[in-house]
Amino acid sequence: MSGAGNIRYKVAEAARLAGVSASTLRLWETQGLVVPERSATGHRQYTEADLARLKRISWFRAERGLNPAAIREALDAESTANDEPGPAALSESNIDLQVGRKLRSLRHAAGKTLEQVAGDVGIAPSVLSTLERTSQGVSVAVLHNLAEYFGTTVSSLSGEEELQARVLVRAGEWRNWPRTTPGVTVQLLAEGQNQMDCHRFVLAAGASSEGAYRHDGEEFVYVLSGRVEFVLDGDQFYDLHPGDSLYFESRRRHAWSNRHDGETILLWINTPPTF
């Protein structure tokens, strides 16, 4: 495989990444909601575009309560926005495998097996294996826990610290973090080894941290569009709308989820860069 865009997932793997059962994927296929590729031997193969579609199907079913016909109509309405990425985007996607490669190198350097690391972090070895191979399939919370386990940060795993400092970043010229979590796009608003992590989070409908995490420092979140819910310390809930902001100590356990039926965009700053 020459890059992240060429990855193909088997039924069981795609089902796990989409958060549904393999039988559900087969049902959706019979309903015409998704049509996976077939290998030379006839086995189903799901692309990254298929995975994104599966996430949307799951969200429409769970959050909107739509039936298959209504889901097909909703997906068709989004078809323009969900077109396959062009050559420039595919070129950028070639860096998307680096998170998995870095984690594998860190694990080998520590002399740990897949089973040892997965057990210590609280995930299945198959999930860690998929992450190391494809840089895909884990939540933001799990990725943070893995980074913390190896004494590094998500920013470092994503290659942010390796970039040359830029004084000016023009609108629309943001570099993306490798896409490890379906529905979550992180764009860099400042580059280089700075005292602040300055990011633009773009959350697809239904995207979330899928768990709480914490680290050193302080952070500021400003909602540019959409709607997001933050949960601090497990019992403090904040429903944020466009123009709302939230400031909190990063040592407080925090989780978040997009509560908008469309895309939510956040300005998110951490200092020091410990995420």
From TrEMBL:
Q: Name one Pfam family in it.
A: MerR_1
Tell me the keywords, alphabetical order. Answer: DNA-binding
Read off the Gene3D superfamilies from this record: 1.10.1660.10, Jelly Rolls, lambda repressor-like DNA-binding domains
* Domain HTH cro/C1-type positions: 103-157
- What CDD domains has UniProt attached to this entry? cupin_XRE_C (cd02209), HTH_MerR-like (cd00592), HTH_XRE (cd00093)
Note whether DNA-binding occurs among the keywords: yes
Q: Which residues form the HTH merR-type domain?
A: 8-77
Q: One cellular component GO annotation, for this chain's record?
A: cytosol
SUPFAM superfamilies, A to Z: lambda repressor-like DNA-binding domains, Putative DNA-binding domain, RmlC-like cupins
| Gene Ontology molecular function terms on file | DNA binding; DNA-binding transcription factor activity
Annotated protein name in UniProt:
MerR family transcriptional regulator
Organism in which the protein naturally occurs = Sinorhizobium glycinis
What does the record give as the organism's lineage? Bacteria, Pseudomonadati, Pseudomonadota, Alphaproteobacteria, Hyphomicrobiales
